[in-house]
Amino acid sequence: MAYIVCKYGCRRPTMNEDVFMEQLRLRRLYWNGLVELHNRYLIDRYREITWVPERDVLDGMYKELEELREQLKQGRQKCRGTGSDKTKHGKELKAKIKKLEKEAGRYYRDVYKPAYQKHKAQEHIKQELAANDQEFSERWKQLRCEMVEQGLYWGNYDDINRNYDCYIRRQSLRKGRHLKFRRWDGTGKVHLRLMRDMILSASEVFDGKSNWVQIAPVDERAWTSESRRERRRHCWTKIRVRIQSEGRRPVWGELPMCMHRPLPAGEIRTVSVRREVIAGWPRYSVSIGVMVPDVPCKPDDSRPSVALDIGWRRLDKNRVRVAYWYSSDGAHGEVIMEEETVSQFLKVDDLRSIRDNYFNEIKEKLVSFVRNNNIPEWLKEERYIWSPRWRSIVKLVKLVKKWERFSGDEEIYRELECWYRRERHLYQYEANLRDQIHARRWEQYRVFSSRVARWFGRVYMEDIDLSRMSRKPKPEDGTAVSTLPNRYRVIAAPGEFRSILESACKREGIYVKRIEPQHTTQECHGCGRVEKFNASAMLERECPHCGLRWDQDFNAAKNILERGLDEDVPERERLMAAV
Fold it and tell me: Are 497 and 504 within 8 A, CB to CB?
């Protein structure tokens, strides 16, 4: 079986909006309470029980490493553009860091780890850990009961529990990191998981008899009409989702919904109503999870195969190449993010920079004012305003909103009001622009992916960990990954592109395979010789052995296709005859 999630846009709830908002608030309270228990028992208390003296020595080494890296980073920032990492001071710091890393690794492997395992194997330590886990479970159960008494519906705490048990808890314990609290900002979702006799078919939600989710019937012209105007006119309907119970009676949350496509034939398993806030304005959507028969992904030899080299590369006129594709029938092309879209992404960064500059100016004036004037007690309680290092724009916005006028604040209050009006305008401009360009990028990737799934029978791509490319380099690594390529990586979002492509292919039953990426760019597709070169310095390259000139990404895509067909298709010569 396969799981398909259909997302539909909605308008503001027309029934029980206050109950809906209360469920979002209680859901956030439950999450923060669970985070507090997790950090206290599974992180802090666990560290106390399993502590050994060797840990202090190891922590001291790690702390010294961080200090040396910070010194190297600050030194390079002060001498930016002069090659500070090549100076004598930079070389000395790098040597110290390298030496200390080896010492820390050796100490961890030979001293700390054996001592830690020996300590943890003691019987009384095992009993303390078991008691700690038991206490955590009891406190968690108590928290859940308290939230249910306050009115939290079972579908919401069940969703948090499942996500925490399956993903979040495991990742946090593996990395040894604290979970983060989430402030209440009016966002969240109301979730309902249909189990056993609650499961509905895609057609049963329209008959109005279900006690869990109901959708008003939709005219088929909303999906079949050739006129876009007709489709838009008939696609609006209403959805009712059970968000709470009064005894056995459901409390409905009703929202107008734009049902732009029909539900697939299958069993409805989950329904989620999500609320987002974009530039201060709420946005609602409904996600319906449907379980359908899985479409087997089998190679289709009646259609050509295609390989994609996914990444990001800045071209002329500020365009960004996201991928290059090459098919077995000789066709090839590229996925380009045009200059207009890229400039809008860069505009978002510029707006954020402008907001930061205005904030720094008004912050200096406010700090100077509170230090040189007599201020009331309510303002003295805001401790952060005395320090010039705080960087939260949200705190200053809240301070302006609750400002109580007092004698001598005329000038600073006028400047704060002026800053607030400008900040509100720039924030809305930035948030709306970001939302629009993200939607435009997603639509471009979706359209291309649907064409790939419609035209080709096999899809090959490199098996690379894109998340590793997003990690910032250590200070001792120098400028191997500069800020500019990272900026264009965020704009291109290759991980999002690959995810949309694989999802479209799986939905249509198209065979997708990831290929070993070693030397796909350095290997010449003409003669097969591997020649290493600086791939970031030039887009086109001439092979020094055979003299063939090719585009790097074209060469990589063709090598990926050849490797994929070599692994999957014995009659490779027949399929590649047209190349």
Answer: no
In which residue are the tokens 């365009």 written?
A: 319
**Are both 274 and 377 inside the same structural domain?**
no
Q: How confident is the model at residue 481 (pLDDT cuts 50, 70, 90)?
A: very low
Beta strands in 11-95 (DSSP E): none
Residue 529 contacts residue 471 (beta carbons within 8 Å)? no
* Alpha helix stretches (DSSP H) within 108-122: 113-120
Same-domain pairing of 364 and 490:
no
Q: Say yes or no: 240 and 253 in one domain.
A: yes
User: What are the Cα distances from residue 381, in Å, to 377, 386, 416?
Assistant: 6, 10, 19
> Quick one: CA dihedral 361, 362, 366, 372, positive or negative?
positive
For the ranges 247-251, 544-548, 565-569, the maximum mean pLDDT occurs at 247-251
pLDDT tens profile 301-330:
889 999 999 988 888 878 999 999 999 999
52 lies in the same domain as 142: yes
For residues 109-127, average pLDDT: 93
Quick check: 474 and 525 in contact, CB under 8 A?
Answer: no
- Which structural domain, as residue segments, surrounds residue 275? 2-16+185-292
Tell the burial category of 396 from Cβ atoms under 10 Å away from its Cβ (0-12, 13-18, 19+): buried
Band of pLDDT at residue 526, cut at 50, 70 and 90: confident
Number of folded domains in the chain? Answer: 4
- The predicted pLDDT at position 485 comes to 62
Single pTM value for the model? 0.85
Q: Which tokens belong to 380?
A: 């003295």
Instruction: Kindly state the greatest CA–CA separation across the chain.
Output: 88
Closest Cα to residue 324, out of 443, 442, 460, 450? Answer: 460
Q: State the pLDDT at residue 561.
A: 93
Q: 536 and 404: one domain?
A: no
- The Cα–Cα gap between 557 and 494 comes to 15
